[in-house]
User: Fold these one by one.
Assistant:
Number 1:
Amino acid sequence: MTSKKASPFRLLLLGYGHVARALLPLLAARDAWLARELGVRPLISGVGSRSQGFFIFPAGLDVGSLVQESGPLMSLQPPGTRVETAEAFLYAGKSVGADVLIELTTLNPLDGQPALDHIRMALQTRMHVITANKGPIAYGLVELQKLAHAHDAQFRFESAVLDGLPLMNLSEYTLPAVDIQAFRALLNTTSSLVLSMIEEGQSLDEALARAQQLGIAEADPWHDLDGWDAVMKTTILANTLLEGHLLPHMVERAGIRDLSPDEVRAAARSGTPIRLVSQARRDRDDVIASVHPQRIQPDDILRVGTGMTGIISLETGAMGPITLVEHEPTVQQTAYGVFSDLVNIVRRRQGS
Amino acid sequence: MTSKKASPFRLLLLGYGHVARALLPLLAARDAWLARELGVRPLISGVGSRSQGFFIFPAGLDVGSLVQESGPLMSLQPPGTRVETAEAFLYAGKSVGADVLIELTTLNPLDGQPALDHIRMALQTRMHVITANKGPIAYGLVELQKLAHAHDAQFRFESAVLDGLPLMNLSEYTLPAVDIQAFRALLNTTSSLVLSMIEEGQSLDEALARAQQLGIAEADPWHDLDGWDAVMKTTILANTLLEGHLLPHMVERAGIRDLSPDEVRAAARSGTPIRLVSQARRDRDDVIASVHPQRIQPDDILRVGTGMTGIISLETGAMGPITLVEHEPTVQQTAYGVFSDLVNIVRRRQGS
């Protein structure tokens, strides 16, 4: 095993839901690759979640052993050192040498808390941070980027929006040359799915139940249907791709709650199905953004995205439109986005 | 002007056609941005072309003054020092401090020469190289990358394939995480345009004449219609995105020359228009690639690209398909790709 020679790269996992559980086997499977290409071997310094408690592993836990563990965190062998709060978890993690906080707690669309505070604390202790949580980025992007810079740490969030598409990498490496002026996008798959089921004759309640059954809709589907999820993503994209300084409440918002099934079906029959469109545009030194239902015309490139597809079409200053499409995103893709952030952190740290 | 404090970044332009003439105003317009963001000020150390001769400017020529110059290179004031050959031009350029060779000569699909030799020479003298010329990359990618690495120089070619899409950046920054297994693409706009005109009732000759009038088709349109242009691009993508080691003659090739207009029209009428499809797939340690006409089914994502659109759909190991679309590419986009390479060279040189 080449991994014997690799130096440890210590991870602190905060949030232990679907994404974390998809990330671990992915890391384990790429053990040899990480050792060979980057010279690192990931070790878990701690895992914590509000429901299961917060556990620190001072010597570092092998990723593989955590993959095999299907029981609760409490019953891990050898047991971790339990701490009481997320704050204590972060400080204890730092004290045992954690390099990166991987923040995977659930979205709070009101103010991004407590994830925002977790990320602040981690950056202040010079830990790098990866998050897939839209809240803290939508509310604190500029502040967190400054904080990261001041503490010589990296802050990455590739999987927060359109997980499957490397939009943040695009923004980082090609934005200056491309000069993005505006975008239009379908960012919320649940609302697309629900609308297409209504078009096929189901009621809103039936469609919602089915989406939850499929594991697509959140526990509270109104985050999706009222446009809050899309607003978070639109804010993040407006602030990264268009260099805006928006907060979520500055994004004009209308959801699909008040659309009547008849209206939805009539629009689809006439060849212009309704979808929840996110859009943003530079306007002098400002950015104007909105999320609202729109009829998608047959020649609209967003038409490709009316199934279970995420799509974004960028209008660029001198290059015309560029469109990126991801098909039927799953939690695997979110985990992959986190993995790619990890790779980029190691690479940049090494200056390669 | 902030540019006063910026340090000179010296460019050697080899090839003085449409792309070079689109690049210069773009550089001039971004003078302040380059000084502010990167601390550099581009200066022209030399410009040369086979038809107009090779000229060196030892003190460096201001980009703006070259933009305003519409006459032949010979009549530039103050005049450059004329040298006889491209080789002499490269060495003289190096001796006056050129940092980057921007190679924009025309495609030679047979062996990529003489561009391949120009790039070798430049890298050996530790100049960075940017090219938009597919030939040298299709024939010499691995060798040129090794050469660049050995001489601590950078070799970049973002605009060689689907100029408007940052595919090479994607490959460089996200390939390891994304694990691309295969791609399908429409890479040659001329053949798409000619086929769509035949579908509308024109003859092949009429369609060709129109494409040339529009400035889309090359002087020799058979590079496009026989699939050579697509083969070059497919080779490059197979070797970068899929880490293959193909040479152009290893790509199975069939063009659209032998399709009858009736066949083309019948296919379009039945809802499955014919387009020249590039595809490649990993196969154990190898990559298999082809370029040939295919009927595009209604539910095929490539369907989006049947107009004047370039499109590539990537099949990734764990993330499902990702599709990128560019709309009606022009020479502006090629120039932008070169500019983005330049930005990345400066950034990487600075280790940022």
Note: Chain A touches chain B at residues 26, 33, 37, 163-166, 169-170, 173-174, 176-178, 301, 304, 316, 318-330, 332-333, 336-337, 339-340, 343-344, 351 (CB under 8 Å).
Number 2:
Amino acid sequence: MQDIFDFNRLLRRGVSEVIVEEELVARLKRGEKLRLKEGFDPSSSDIHLGHMVGLRKLRQFQELGHEVVLIVGDWTAQIGDPTGQSVTRPVLSHEQVKVNAETYMQQFFKIVDRSRTEVRWQSEWFGKFSLTDVIKLTGRFTIAQFLARDDFSKRFAAGKPITLTEFIYPLLQAYDSVQVQASVEFGGNDQKFNLLVGRELQGMVGQQPQQILMTPLLIGTDGSHKMSKSLGNYIGVTETPEQIFGKVMSIPDNLLMDYFTLVTDVTDAELSEFSHEIETRANPMVLKKRLAREIIIQLYDKAAASAAEDNFVRIVQNKEIPDEIPHFRIAPGVLSIPNVMLDAGLVKSKSEAMRLIRQGGVEIDGKKLTEPNYAVAYGAVLKAGKRRYVKLIE
Amino acid sequence: MQDIFDFNRLLRRGVSEVIVEEELVARLKRGEKLRLKEGFDPSSSDIHLGHMVGLRKLRQFQELGHEVVLIVGDWTAQIGDPTGQSVTRPVLSHEQVKVNAETYMQQFFKIVDRSRTEVRWQSEWFGKFSLTDVIKLTGRFTIAQFLARDDFSKRFAAGKPITLTEFIYPLLQAYDSVQVQASVEFGGNDQKFNLLVGRELQGMVGQQPQQILMTPLLIGTDGSHKMSKSLGNYIGVTETPEQIFGKVMSIPDNLLMDYFTLVTDVTDAELSEFSHEIETRANPMVLKKRLAREIIIQLYDKAAASAAEDNFVRIVQNKEIPDEIPHFRIAPGVLSIPNVMLDAGLVKSKSEAMRLIRQGGVEIDGKKLTEPNYAVAYGAVLKAGKRRYVKLIE
């Protein structure tokens, strides 16, 4: 087996569950060319490090000759949430969907090999789906099956409304698998039920049932919740190298090993070494810098990673002023610095500015500000907190 | 109110529930021309006395100037039961549906006024129903709402499968109401949930919600179950006057008042009188004959009713041989009478024939048969039970 693929790298690291592992191993050993299904909802187009876990796994399969089938959920996005209950599901126009899909794919192909990817649009088949097709599809599944799904059973027990439509969406996702004849569907742990419906439906219509490869959820920079854009605890793949470096340096130490394991290619030997270093209470700063570089190299290149590190050392560690800082026009004379800070976007409210000043966190040209009103000279640098700067100009 | 319509006749007798009665009364008093929705499933085309309860009510509304909208469920019939779980829902071809619908309407218009009926075919709207339409429709209703329906909740509790499709069918019936802009939907008690879904959906899409008029279920000739073709306890509207007469005479005495109330126009004064006669243990035979005549007059005419009664008196009461009896060819010599009875269709099994002979229920030319083998003369009349005859010929 080792001749064909690295079992641990492919099916253990960065994998939370495979259904059914023996079947997938057999298909890999037979040298079957697999169609790896990945879907995305074009109502949000941002990819962050949490998504990278799965996309890196797709890439590893591609390196063995397999093909990714990326399904753009354009049909669903153009329907939105007809009940109006979900604010996360706006109705998108055909144009918006196309723009979002383009943005998504630019990020997607930072990690996944474009030359080994087939892009399919859901509307190819759902645009002409008839009521007869719906009846045939819904006749294959029972209410009890769906109510067994964890989130549904909890909501049902709590008396919270579940619309009939919510039972239909997983069937549509399953039908996608039939349409593209998926061999393996990829998804997060939280997608298990829907992925299984696809597997079941394929078997029912006489296709070989897809395997399911689930990837673990990455904890966000706050150290406590799943990384997600709405929680603000994410590192986006389109952020600048400097932003990524800074965010990685801010993650809690106990996430280090997870991040190394799930979103980098450092070897297993190194992983053990790092783990030992953390246990022996070595300074994690060195490891964090390594992690930040590993991530930036994947998304940009080595030069960008080095530059980001240099920038971090200079500004944050040596507290130097960065090369380029934004300018902000001021009036002459004595100014309310909290007002300036708010208008310049350094803080979100005047009370935040006041608090920072009281805590000694605001400097003008390197001198701590002690009271809110101050006569500023043109060209002075205003610093708020550790890394927010603005040059005050005429 | 009495000026406009007879409240008791229209909304009390033969009505089990009206939702909402005050609304319906108000519409009737306003002189609104109502669209009375009645649907039928062309997978079975036979109308029996149980259906007559509702059809007679439609007719009464028509007499006040309202219009029936008969919905032919052709779309649903051509889908059948895609799960294959229901034997009562075969897939019908377009041709079969047309034939069944024609047969149904021939019976339907024995009771309902054809000139005040609009016939609509479900496929007019469901033929072009898209997945988007399905999502919009299913998004309006919750799983909990459907599971609250009595039969669903029982099946769910018992762990019996309910397919998703079964939750969709009531929505389609509701959508029919929207399409034809029904003012009142008619149905049996057992249809209450589905009828309410239609009312709710109309309100959601900005139509005036339909009223619902439910008619009681008629108990079949067995005296214990709802009249239904599959139970064999029915009186079909296409049966001959003789058959109807015979079946009415066979119903249990305690059903008499129900039948008079629900499927005849005898006055309320007569109803009280009949009820008193039954309580005072009068011979119910007279009342049964009256009931049979009332029914036959509606489906045929007075002459047919009289002829059927004469026939009944002659054959059953006076045990005469009917004018026309079927012929059956026999071989010469000693015959096994149970075999003959089975082949001639007088019994369903030889053991039934043997039992009848033992009980003295079989006669040849008026003489009781005492043993199963008998040398029959050509032209002899074989009688089994009270009313089954066959003439044995060369």
Note: The mean pLDDT of chain B is 88.
